[in-house]
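ARCHIVE RECORD
Type: protein–small molecule complex
Small molecule: iron/sulfur cluster
Source of inputs: curated submission
Record status: active
Notes field left blank by submitter.
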Amino acid sequence: MLSDEKILFKEAIAIDPLEVVIDPEARDQLEAGVGWQKLRACNGADPELFFSPDQKDGRPTATQREAMKWCADCIVKQACLQFALVNDEVAGVWGGLTTFQRRNLGRRHVA
Ligand code: SF4
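STRUCTURE (tokenized, with ligand):
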């Protein structure tokens, strides 16, 4: 069961991808009806890179850092992160952040 703070946080971020995507090329394509998933930089990447487990100390693993390189210039990074937060994705690198990093992001926003 989610805490009240987490529910508030989820509601706060449950917005349209167009409200978070800042890349002009991505905005044009989203407005034209293209789903953000079609614009991912990681389309074609090995999924294993993105779904390696977190380390106990929260520091990104070498594999996660490799995944993050794909995210660095991804034009839909914000939409990807939003999707992961709204859907409580508990595994994987999304929006350039590991699960551990996303949990800390949530804590910062509800503080
Ligand atoms: S931010 Fe990273 S994981 Fe998300 S779509 Fe872009 S490349 Fe893929």
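CURATOR ANNOTATION: The radius of gyration is 14 Å.
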